[in-house]
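re: ur question from earlier - yeah i can do the single chain one, its not a big deal. heres the input i used so u can compare w yours
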Amino acid sequence: MDDPGNAIEVRRLCKRFNTHRRSNSLKDLVVYHERRDDTRVREVLHDVSFSVPKGGVLGIIGRNGSGKSTMLKLLTRILRPNEGTVETDGKIACLIELGAGFHPDMTGRENIYINASIFGIPKGVIDERFDDIVEFSGIGEFIDERIRNYSSGMYLRLAFSVAINVDADILLVDEILTVGDIQFQKKCMDRLKAFRDAGGTIVLVTHNIEQTTDICDNIIWLDDGRVREEGAAAEVCAHYKEAMLGPGAEGT
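and the output i got, formated as C-alpha cells:
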C-alpha cells in the first residue's frame, strides 16, 4: 500500500450489476415469436475513493439502496469491482450476515463450534473462549437447546458473540447494532470501542446516527452510489439529518 499507516485504501471504485427482466407476454410471443430478455446495467457504486487509517473508525451512512452493503462486500472480496481497487492491510472479520452458518437442528453449543470454525478459529481456541462467548450472549441456560427454538434476538446475540471473538485487525460491521435489547446493544458498542482502543480498525454501516457519532472518527455519506460528503462524524451526520428531515433537524 502507498501509505503504510492505512488499513484500507479504496480508489476509484465502481460496481455494476446486470439485471434481467424476462418477458413471457402474449404480445411478445405473437409479435416477436419468442420470449424477450431485457438486460439492463445498474451502477451501484460510482468512482468511490477513501482510506481508513489503522486504528480508525469509518462510518458509512445513506438511504436504503445507496450502496452501503455493497461497499462492505467489496471490502471483504465477496464481490469484485468492475473498476478501481481495494487494498487492505490486516486480517478481516465480517459482522455482516450474522449466524449465516448456524444449523437450526443443532444446539447453540454445537453451532458455536461450527460457526467459529467458519471464521477460521481452531477448536482449541474455541474451547478457551467458549465460556466468554456464552456469557457475552447472555443465553447460557439455553445453550444446549436447538437453535430453531431460539427467538430471533437470542439467535442474533449468540451469532454476534461468536463473531466478535474472532482475532482480526479490521472489523466490517453491517447494521448489527440493533441486536437484542438496549443492555445488549450497549455491550456490543462497548466491545467495538474496546476493539478500537486496542488498535483495531472498524468500518461501520448503520442508520443509527447517534451510534455513528459516538464511535466513528469520520463518515462517508453515500447517495445513489456516489460519495456526497466525507468528513468529521458530527458534521456529516448533521448535514445528512438536515437533508433527510429538513432544516433544523440536526438539533433534534
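The chain has a mean pLDDT of 86. not sure if urs matches, ping me
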